C-alpha cells in the first residue's frame, strides 16, 4: 500500500502518526477498491484501473461505490465534471450508510448552462435527517481539469475541502442536542444522474439531451480511514487520543485554515441554512449559533468569566474584588449582532451588565446596551447610547416588559449605513438614523469589536447612585448564549480587509416595516423612561439636530 499523501490544507495535528498505526491508507486503483453498481455499461474503468468514467444519457445514468465501509476517515477524489451545457445533471460524491435512519455526508455538483458556474451543494444527514445545506460557486472551472474533493470525518468534526482548501466545517455538537454521524459505517458512492426537476435554477432549466452523453471522470481516489469489516474496525482506538489512531482522527483547522475557509465562505458561498431565517422562523438550528471559544476572548476578571457546555454558555461574575469581561476576536463594520443574555437575578443594585460595540482610540465609535441593576422586585433599566468620534450624549432608557433574570432574551444591534436599530427579542425599541447630510455624526468608518462586562457602578447605576451594592449577595453572575453574527461584515485581527457574508444580507435592510414601527411606538410609549431628545433642561440652547429631523 502506498503512503498517504501530505495533507495540503492548514491543520493543527494533535497526535503524531506513528509507524504502528492500524489505519487503512491507500492510493486506490478503481478495479481493486470500487465496484460499478448500475448504469448498464455507462460506468467504465480504464487506464489500468487509474481512471473511472460515468456517463448519463436519456435512458440512464450510472454509479459506483466503494467495496469498503468506513467509520471515520479522510477520503479524497479527483473529479473532472461534465463539460459544456450540464444543466439538469448532478454529479454526486458522498458517504452514506444503509437503512431508513441513514447517515450521509454529501458533495453534489449541480450542472448549469454553458458559461454559467456549477453549484457545489453540501449537506450532512444523521439518522435520516438533513436540512443542513450549504452551497458554493467555485473559483475555477471544474470541467477543464481534475480537482480534489475531500471529506475529513472524525469524531469531532467533518471538514469539506476543495483542492486542500477547507470550505465547510460541521462540528460534533451532540452536547447541545445536534445529531452527529458517528455510529454507522458508510460507503463512498458517486453517481451521475438526471435531476432536471430541481438541479438548475430550481428546475427552470431542463437537460438538453442533444448534448448527451454527459461524462464525468474520476482518478486519484485515496482513502485513509477506519475500515469496518464483519462489525470490527481497523482502528482499535477512535478517540483520537491514543497512539493507535491516525492524525486525521484528531485534526482541526488552525487559524490559517479557518481564515481560508472564511475567505471561501465570504466570496463563494451562495446559500447557508444557518442564515435562512425565513426557513427557520422559530429560530436557527442550535449548531448555527457561534461557540464562544471560537468567537470571543475573555480579557479580564482573573477567572471570574468562564465558558461552559462545549463553548455554548459564557458566564461573567462580579465580586467585591473584581468584575469580568470578554471581547470578540473579530471587528465589525456593519452587521446584525444577536446575543442572548440572562441578567443578574435578585438584588442587582449597583451592578451594570454592558453589551456593546466599540472601536479604539480617543475618537472612538460605540453602540451601547447597558443593563443597570436594581433592588429585588424593581425593574432593570436598559440604557442605550451611540458614540461617534468619542462623543455620545444620546441616551435613551427603558424598562422591560418581562423579567430579564428569569430566562434568556435576545438583544440585537442591527447596524448598517442607514440606521442603528436596537431590538429586544426581535422588537425594535430604538432607531438612530444616519443624518450625516444634516451635520449629525454617524459611525460609518471605524470597525468595532463586541464587548461585554459585568462590573460595579454603584456610584451612579441605581437610582443615581443612592442605592449601593449589597456585597452579601455576591458573587453576581450574568449568562450569555447563542451569539450570532452570521449576517455581518467583519475582519480578524490579522486581516486588513473587511469581508461581508455574501449569502446573508439582512443587515442591509434599511427601514422598519409598519408593524415594526408599531411595536417600537408601543415600547417607547409604555416603557421608555428617558429620552435625550425631550430633555430641554439638559439642552437649554436647543435639542441636538437629530432630535428635530
Automatic annotation (TrEMBL):
It is found in: Secreted, Cell wall; Secreted, Extracellular space, Apoplast. Pfam families: Glyco_hydro_16, XET_C. The keyword Transcription does not apply. GO terms for molecular function: hydrolase activity, hydrolyzing O-glycosyl compounds; xyloglucan:xyloglucosyl transferase activity. GO terms for biological process: cell wall biogenesis; cell wall organization; xyloglucan metabolic process. Its EC number is 2.4.1.207. PANTHER family: XYLOGLUCAN ENDOTRANSGLUCOSYLASE/HYDROLASE PROTEIN 8-RELATED. The keyword GTP-binding does not apply. It comes from Thlaspi arvense (Field penny-cress). Residues 8-151, 147-480 form the GH16 domain. Keywords: Apoplast, Cell wall, Cell wall biogenesis/degradation, Disulfide bond, Glycoprotein, Glycosidase, Hydrolase, Secreted, Signal, Transferase. Its main location: secreted. InterPro entries: Beta-glucanase-like, Beta-glucanase/XTH, ConA-like_dom_sf, GH16_AS, XET_C, XTH. Residues 1-28 form the signal peptide. One of its GO terms (cellular component) is apoplast. This is xyloglucan:xyloglucosyl transferase. CDD domains: GH16_XET. It catalyses: breaks a beta-(1->4) bond in the backbone of a xyloglucan and transfers the xyloglucanyl segment on to O-4 of the non-reducing terminal glucose residue of an acceptor, which can be a xyloglucan or an oligosaccharide of xyloglucan.
Amino acid at each position: 500500500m502506498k503512503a498517504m499523501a501530505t495533507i495540503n490544507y492548514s491543520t493543527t495535528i494533535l497526535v503524531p502518526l506513528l509507524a504502528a498505526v492500524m489505519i487503512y491508507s491507500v492510493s486506490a486503483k478503481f478495479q481493486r477498491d470500487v465496484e460499478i453498481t448500475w448504469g448498464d455499461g455507462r460506468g467504465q474503468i480504464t487506464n489500468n484501473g487509474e481512471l473511472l468514467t460515468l456517463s448519463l444519457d436519456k435512458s440512464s445514468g450510472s454509479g459506483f461505490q466503494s467495496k469498503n465501509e468506513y467509520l471515520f476517515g479522510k477520503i479524497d477524489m479527483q473529479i473532472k465534471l461534465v463539460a459544456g451545457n450540464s444543466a439538469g445533471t448532478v454529479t454526486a460524491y458522498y458517504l452514506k450508510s444503509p437503512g431508513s435512519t441513514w447517515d450521509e455526508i454529501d458533495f453534489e455538483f449541480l450542472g448549469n448552462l454553458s458559461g454559467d458556474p456549477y453549484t457545489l451543494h453540501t449537506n450532512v444527514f444523521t439518522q435520516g435527517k438533513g436540512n443542513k445545506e450549504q452551497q458554493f460557486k467555485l473559483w475555477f472551472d471544474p470541467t477543464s481539469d481534475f480537482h480534489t474533493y475531500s471529506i475529513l470525518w472524525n469524531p469531532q468534526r467533518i471538514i469539506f475541502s476543495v483542492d486542500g482548501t477547507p470550505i465547510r466545517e460541521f462540528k460534533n455538537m451532540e452536547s447541545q442536542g445536534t445529531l452527529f454521524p458517528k455510529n454507522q459505517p458508510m460507503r463512498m458512492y458517486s453517481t451521475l444522474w438526471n435531476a432536471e426537476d430541481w438541479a438548475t435554477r430550481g428546475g427552470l432549466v431542463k437537460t438538453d439531451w442533444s448534448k448527451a452523453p454527459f461524462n464525468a471522470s474520476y482518478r486519484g481516489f485515496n482513502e485513509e480511514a477506519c475500515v469496518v469489516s464483519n462489525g470490527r474496525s481497523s482502528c482499535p482506538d477512535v478517540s483520537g487520543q491514543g497512539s493507535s489512531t491516525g492524525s486525521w482522527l484528531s485534526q482541526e483547522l488552525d487559524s490559517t485554515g479557518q481564515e481560508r475557509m472564511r475567505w471561501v465562505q465570504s466570496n463563494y458561498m451562495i446559500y447557508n441554512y444557518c442564515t435562512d431565517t425565513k426557513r427557520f422562523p422559530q429560530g436557527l438550528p442550535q449548531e448555527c449559533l457561534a461557540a464562544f471559544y471560537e468567537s470571543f476572548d475573555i480579557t479580564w476578571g482573573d477567572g471570574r468569566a468562564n465558558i461552559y457546555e462545549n463553548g455554548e454558555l459564557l458566564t461573567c461574575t462580579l465580586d467585591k474584588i473584581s468584575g469580568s469581561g470578554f471581547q470578540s476576536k473579530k471587528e465589525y463594520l456593519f452587521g446584525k449582532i444577536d446575543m442572548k443574555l440572562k441578567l443578574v437575578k435578585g438584588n442587582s443594585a449597583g451592578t451594570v451588565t454592558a453589551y456593546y460595540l466599540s472601536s479604539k482610540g480617543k475618537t472612538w465609535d460605540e453602540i451601547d446596551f447597558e443593563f443597570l441593576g436594581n433592588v429585588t422586585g424593581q425593574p432593570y433599566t436598559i440604557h442605550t447610547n451611540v458614540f461617534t468620534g468619542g462623543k455620545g450624549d444620546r441616551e435613551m432608557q427603558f424598562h422591560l416588559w418581562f423579567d430579564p433574570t428569569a430566562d434568556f432574551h435576545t438583544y440585537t444591534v442591527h447596524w448598517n449605513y442607514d440606521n442603528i436599530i436596537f431590538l429586544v427579542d426581535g422588537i425594535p425599541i430604538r432607531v438612530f438614523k444616519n443624518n450625516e447630510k444634516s451635520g449629525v455624526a454617524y459611525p460609518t468608518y471605524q470597525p468595532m469589536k463586541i464587548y461585554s462586562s459585568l462590573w460595579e457602578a454603584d456610584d451612579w447605576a441605581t437610582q443615581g447612585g443612592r442605592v449601593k451594592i449589597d456585597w452579601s449577595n455576591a458573587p453576581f453572575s450574568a449568562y450569555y448564549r447563542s451569539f450570532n453574527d452570521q449576517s455581518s461584515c467583519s475582519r480578524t485581527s490579522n486581516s486588513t480587509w473587511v469581508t461581508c457574508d455574501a449569502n446573508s444580507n439582512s443587515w442591509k435592510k434599511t427601514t422598519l416595516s409598519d408593524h415594526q414601527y408599531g411595536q417600537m411606538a408601543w415600547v417607547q410609549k409604555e416603557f421608555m423612561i428617558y429620552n435625550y431628545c425631550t430633555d430641554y433642561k439638559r439642552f437649554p440652547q436647543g435639542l441636538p439636530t437629530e432630535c428635530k429631523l
